[in-house]
Amino acid sequence: ATNFVIEGLKATIEGKEILKGINLEMKGGEIHAIMGPNGTGKSTLASALMGHPKYEVTDGTITLDGEDVLDMAVDERARAGLFLAMQYPSEIAGVTNSDFLRSAINARRGEGNEISLIKFIRQMEGKMKELDMNPEFAHRYLNEGFSGGEKKRNEILQMMLLDPKIVVLDEIDSGLDIDALKIVANGVNAMKSEDRGFLIITHYQRLLNYITPDYVHVMMQGRIVKSGGPELAHRLEAEGYDWVKAELGITD
Ligand code: ADP
Ligand code: MG
Ligand code: MG
């Protein structure tokens, strides 16, 4: 079964330490949520996991099924089964969504094991239907002129087609209306499996009404300061973060 372990992870951006020792262990079949105030390093954690060049990991380890993730380049991480849906998906001029998806799938599958065009189109069209996406999105340039909701749905489409082991969703709920939120949540729930773990980063508990986490972690000032079950998310929604700060003696 999938086993993803983050130990003592520290990371800096432009010399400033943002992650100050993150510890987290996830297994296949589990859904973990990370919640926390703005600016605490949630997106930095997601980027560091994926190997974004802007973030320098200065200490700690990340392993996926015993393999050293920090030793892998970005594309190797994707091939190993890490997937990140970004808070702000970028536009790629001149590359259609379907071209992008097919090369991402083939990168994940590896050389000599490429998906046939027919099979790819069949899979893509099937998943787009599940996500209630207009078929024309396949032929549009990646994220260009997509609304916030369309971008998020498109990230979920990528996740479905790439069949990753560890899925990191960074604020996939931001900017979604309730119908789009349900579609995204259904997509995630349909992808739940014993071989796949989810790390869901969210500012609001709303998404967690539709995707029930097994564990909820609170991140503050670059650390996971508290962990619990789904009830923790409800308490944060009702009471905010001040009580956690008070409990831990954090002042800012
Ligand atoms: P969160 O996702 O929890 O809102 P971020 O990881 O985006 O937090 O940001 C954590 C901290 O790192 C913030 O203080 C932010 O200003 C800083 N930061 C994030 N990205 C950059 C960057 N590219 N350059 C400089 N500082 C950054
Ligand atoms: Mg933020
Ligand atoms: Mg963020």
Automatic annotation (TrEMBL):
A Pfam family found in this protein is ABC_tran
**UniProt KW keywords:** ATP-binding, Nucleotide-binding
Every copy of the ABC transporter domain together lies at 4-246
CDD domains (UniProt xref): ABC_FeS_Assembly (cd03217)
Q: Which domain of life is it from?
A: Bacteria
Gene Ontology MF annotations: ATP binding; ATP hydrolysis activity
Keyword ATP-binding attached:
yes
Alphabetized Gene3D superfamilies for the sequence: P-loop containing nucleotide triphosphate hydrolases
Family the entry assigns: Belongs to the ABC transporter superfamily. Ycf16 family.
**What's this protein's name?**
Iron ABC transporter ATP-binding protein
Q: Which organism is it from?
A: Paenibacillus xylanivorans
